[in-house]
Amino acid sequence: MTRDVSTTLHWWSFASWRGSSAEFRPGQWEAIETVVARRQKALVVQRTGWGKSAVYLIATKLLRASGTGPTVIVSPLLALMRNQLEMAELLGVRSETVNSSNRDEWDRIYTAIQEGRVDLLLISPERLNNPLFRTEALPQLTRNLGLLVVDEVHCISDWGHDFRPDYRRLGQVVASLPPNVAVLGTTATANDRVVADVKLQLGGDLEEIRGPLDRPSLALQVITMADRADRLAWLAATIPRLEGSGIVYCLTIRDAKRVGRWLTLNRIDAVVYTGQSEVEDRLEIEERLSSGALSVVVATSALGMGYDNPHIRFVIHYQSPGSPVAYYQQVGRAGRAVDSAFGVLLAGEEDQEIQDYFIRVAFPTREDVDAALGYLTGSGGATLRELEGVVNVQRSRLTGLLRILEVEGAVYREGSRWYRSASRWEYPSERVAAVTAARRTEQDAMRRYITTDACLMEFLRHRLDDSAAVPCGRCANCAGPPLPVDVPEGLRSEALRFLNRTAVLIEPRKQWPLKPGTMDIAGLRLEEGRALSVRGDPGWARLAQRGKYEDGRFSDALVAATVTMIREWSPAPAPAWLTWVPAFEGGGVVADFASRLAEQLDLPAIQAVSKDRQTDSQKTMANSYQQARNVLGAYTVTEVRPGPVLLVDDVVDSRWTFTVIGVQLLHAGSGPVYPVALVDTSRAGA
Length: 686
What we know:
The structure is a single chain. The protein is an alpha/beta fold and 686 residues long. The chain has 4 domains: 208 residues, Rossmann fold; 183 residues, 3-Layer(aba) Sandwich (Rossmann fold); 69 residues, Orthogonal Bundle (Arc Repressor Mutant, subunit A); 178 residues, Rossmann fold. It is globular, with a radius of gyration of 28 Å. The relative contact order is 0.08.
C-alpha cells in the first residue's frame, strides 16, 4: 500500500478533521502502514495532540474498505470514549461503545456487530473482566477482528503511573488473535521501562514509533506554596487575568470541591469534575469546556487521559502529582492548538502525605492477600461484605485486591460470591517491592522537579526517556516567571477565613455493615452533622492538633468558632441539650471542650454516655465492617433527655463511633442526634 493510495481513498476525511491544509505528522503514516499494509503490531509513543486517534481511525477506514472485520478499541475512561466517538463520526466511521453506562443498548450493539454495521467498537478494560463478555462476545469479535487498539497502553504496566489490573487480560487476548490481526498500542506517557513491560505483555515484536515530547506553546512554572490559603489566594488573583479556558487539578475529591467553591465565591466561572460526578454531568462539563463556555474546570485525574480539547490555555496543579510522568500527562492538556499556554505547579505541604498514601495502597499486602485467600479456601466462598470482616482494608482496595487475584487466576466470581480457584499462585513480593521502590524514585524525581534550576520541560522529557530533550527557552527557569508569584495579602486573609468557616458535612450512616441482628436500629438514623475543619488545614485543624497533643486543652478560639459554625448551620429542630463521646478513663479534653461549648450555647451539658472498654483507634480500622465492630458494645447510655441533642467529639473519621452512640441515644428516647466534631480526619473524597 502506498501513501498515494491511502490519501486518494481517505485524505478528505483526515483533512476535514485537522483542517484543509492538514498533513501527516512524522510517524503517523508509518504507524498506519504497519497495521494496515503489514498487519503487524505497533507501539506509538507520541505527545498528546500528535494525532494518535487519527492513526487508528484512518486505519479502521482502510481495513474496513479492504473487507476486514471491525476495530476494537480498549479505552480506559468514559471521557476518552466520548471524544473518540465524536472523532469517528467526523471521519465517517460507524462506531459504538459498550460500557457500564449504556447497558440497555448492549443487545442492539451486538446485533449490529453481527450484521456488519459497526466499524469500530469501544470497550473499557473492565469489560474484559465480565465473564459473559469474555465467553460469548469476545470470541465472536476476535474471530473476525480487523484491528485491536489498546489506547493509553501504559495502563497495562504496573511500572506506569496509572496501572489498571484489567489491562492485564489483554496479553491473553492478543495471544489468542489470528496472526493476520494487527495490534496498535498508543500512549503519550511511557518511559523505557514501561515500553519494555508493554512489549513483554503484548509480544516483543512490536514496532516502536516514538517521537519528541516537547510542547512548543507551553510555558511551565513551579511556585512553592506550602499553605492552602496562599494557593487559593493565588488562584483567585491569577485566573481572571488568563485568557481562555483551563483546568485546575487537585489530588483529592475533597480539595477539588473546596477549590471549586472558593473560585465560585470569587466570581470565577468554575465547575467541579471528579470520579463522583454523574455521567451526565461529566458529559455536559466536557462539552461546555470544549466550546469555551466554561472558564475553569476543577478536576481530579478523572479528567485526564485522552480528553481532546486543543484550546485549553492553562493547566494549574493545586497539588503535586506523584511522578513527572503523571504530571506531563496532565499538564499536556494545555497548549495543543494555541500559540501560548501555561502549566503551573503549586507545590503544597500536604503533597507528600497524599502521595505516600497512594503509593502505600497501590498494591495489596501479603498479609491481606493471605487473609483473603485463606478465608476463601476455608469457607467455600464469600461475599465482599463477609471478606471485609477478615481483611482489614477499604472496600475499594478489597475490590481491587480481588480483581488482581481474578486476573491472575487465583480466584473467580459467581454472582456476588468469590471462590478460590485450583490454580497455584504466589504473592509477587519481589515485583511489588521493585515497583514500590520505582514509585518512590518517581516521587523523589517530582520533588527535584519542584526545586530544579534547570529547564522544566527538558526535565520532564528526560524522565520520559525522550532522547531529543533540549532546553525549551520558555519555562520559568529558562525565560523568567511567565505568571506572577506574589499573593495579595487581602486575598490571603479572605482565603484563610474561607478555610476556617467552611464546615464539613458529616453524613449519617445509612446501613450496618454487620449481619442483621447486630443492633436494633429499625427506623433510627442520625441527622447530618458538621465538622469545623479538615486535617491539614492551616487554621482550626492546626489549633485543634496543638490543643490535643501539646496544650492538653482546646482553646477558647475553637469554642467560639464551633459556636459560630453551629449558629450558622442552625439545625432544626434546634438542639435542647449537649453530650459528648467519653474517654475510657473519664474526663479528658473532649469533656472539657463540650462543657464550655454548652455554656456558650446556653445548653445543658449532660454526661449521658460511658465508655466500658478500650477500643483501637478507628484510624487503624480500614473498612466499615471493622470500624463498626471495633466500637459496638464499647459505650453505654446512662442518661437521656427527650429533646434534640448535639453529640460532640474532637475528631470524626469513620462516623461509626457517632453512629453507635447516636443510635443508642435514639433508642433510649432522645430527640434527633446532631454529630459535631472539631476535625474531620477521614480520607473521604481522597
